[in-house]
Structures are given as structure tokens and as C-alpha cells.
Design a protein that fits this description.
15 strands, Acyltransferase
Length: 264
């Protein structure tokens, strides 16, 4: 299976519409890949909080339309990163879109863990409530977004729902890049799953981005890692290794659930 992670640079001098057209072109260039992945909030920048409401769009708005056409032209499964979604009956959401090779919406995931500690995204966006998996021909994807990476119980839930490959778009800051790599490898090892983590390059509202998109196998080995700038990271991997790893080292079978809290 061939996956291409598009580590898009988000810079203030480029309009959202211009970036949409540019990224659509990058997606079309990945014809021959099985899966293409974009970063979190690449239309606005993950830290450009004042842009969220201004650029929010319906689930099947302009970003969906541009990415659906590009996915269809390239004939690829496309995780189109995330957008600031405007729900006509509720708040904004940080919502990821997965499109089929025919350009149909296969899944949408509203980010569950919002970053900001009572400011920024944590107050501007609503929280998702549902775990989301997507069945591809060769693997089942489990979806998370950026800050979700710090919460292992989400990924355990995705494993229980059948996930074999985690896809995680992000707008991760450079100052915590070491955590990005460490946590991506940890989620792979503890769940015996592939991790495809796609970040942004550039600077969002004065916050330098980590870049360093990464693909990790079920043993925690790094198969490929990008640098800090805009880059297309392409890797070939065998999805069957997830089942093989879980059979060879069946640690997931030893999970102990429902442990009682200590008495005080």
C-alpha cells in the first residue's frame, strides 16, 4: 500500500482560496498512491484562531468540493485533513474529511480533544463525541486529530472498533516536536498498528510548526519521516503486518479492563 503525506506549508501571505487550488494540484500529482493525507486545519492554520469563524464552511463546502474533485481525478482515497466546520444547528467543529477515489464523502470525524486549556480551540470549537473508522480495501483506518495523540484511550477505542492503521492530521508546534515523535511511536507500539501522522510546515499566527510528518509501523519502527519544510512524504507499507504483529506478540489479549479504583 502506498501512502503520501502532504506536509503543506501554511503561511499568512497565501489566501485560503489560493491554498485550496494549490493543494488540490498536489493531490492530483499523487495519482498511483492508495491513500493521500493532508494536515489539520491547513486552510486557516491551526493556531490562527481569529480565522476559524471567518473561514468556517459547511461539511460539503468549498474545501470538500475542491478535494473531492482532486481525489476523483487522482483516483485515490484522500484524508483531506480537517476544516473549521460550521454546523447550522450548533457550534464550529474541527472536522476531518475522508473521501473515496470517486470523490464521495466516506467519513467525517469531529475532533474530540480540543487544545487550548480553556482558550483558543478549546472554547471556539465544539467537541466531537464519536469514534470514527473507515474501511479501505486493504486496511481499516482509525481517525484522530493532533491533540488527540496525547490521549491513549481514544486509540484503544479505535482498536476495539477494528482500526489497523491510525491516520492523524495535525498542526503541531515546533517547540513540542519531541513529543510528536514520541507519542506517534507510543500509539503504534501499544496498539500494534501503523500510525500515519501528517503535520503542517510554515508558521500559524506566529507559531512555528513542527513539520516532521511520520509513518510508524506496528513495532514502533519509523518507516519514513519528513523534514521541517513543505514536503510530500511517500511510503510503501504492508497493512497485513498489523495482524501479523498482533498474532506474533499478542499483548492486546492481556488487557485487563474494569479494574477497581483503590479504596481510600
Amino acid at each position: 500500500m502506498r501512502a503520501s503525506l502532504l506536509q503543506v506549508a501554511v503561511n499568512e501571505g497565501e489566501s485560503v482560496e489560493l491554498r485550496r487550488r494549490r493543494v488540490a494540484g498536489l493531490v492530483r500529482e499523487q495519482a498511483g498512491a492508495d491513500l493521500v493525507v493532508l494536515p489539520e486545519l491547513w486552510t486557516t492554520g491551526a493556531f490562527a484562531y481569529e480565522e476559524f469563524a471567518r473561514e468556517a464552511e459547511p461539511l460539503e463546502g468549498p474545501t470538500f468540493e475542491a478535494m473531492a474533485e482532486a481525489a476523483s481525478d487522482a483516483g485515490v482515497w484522500l484524508h483531506a485533513g480537517s476544516i473549521p466546520e460550521r454546523d447550522p444547528e450548533g457550534p464550529l467543529y474541527n472536522t476531518s474529511l475522508v473521501l473515496s477515489p470517486s470523490g464521495q464523502l466516506a467519513a467525517a470525524y469531529r475532533k474530540i480533544h480540543r487544545f487550548g486549556f480553556d482558550k483558543g480551540e478549546a472554547v471556539l470549537m465544539g467537541a466531537g463525541r464519536e469514534l470514527v473508522t473507515v474501511r479501505l480495501p486493504d486496511t481499516t483506518l482509525g481517525l484522530g486529530t493532533c491533540y488527540d495523540l496525547r490521549f491513549p484511550e481514544l486509540f484503544r477505542g479505535l482498536v476495539d472498533a477494528g482500526a489497523e492503521t491510525f491516520v492523524l492530521p495535525a498542526g503541531w508546534p515546533e517547540r513540542r516536536r519531541a513529543h510528536w515523535t514520541l507519542l506517534a511511536r507510543a500509539r503504534a507500539v501499544e496498539n500494534q498498528a501503523f500510525v500515519l501522522a501528517c503535520g503542517t510546515a510554515g508558521t500559524h499566527a506566529g507559531v512555528p510548526q513542527a513539520g516532521h510528518s511520520i509513518v510508524v509501523d506496528p513495532w514502533g519502527e519509523v518507516l519514513a519521516e519528513a523534514g521541517p519544510g513543505e514536503e510530500v512524504l511517500t511510503v510503501e507499507f504492508d497493512p497485513a503486518r498489523t495482524a501479523e504483529t498482533r498474532e506474533q506478540f499478542p499483548a492486546l489479549k492481556d488487557r485487563v479492563l474494569g479494574v477497581e479504583r483503590p479504596r481510600r
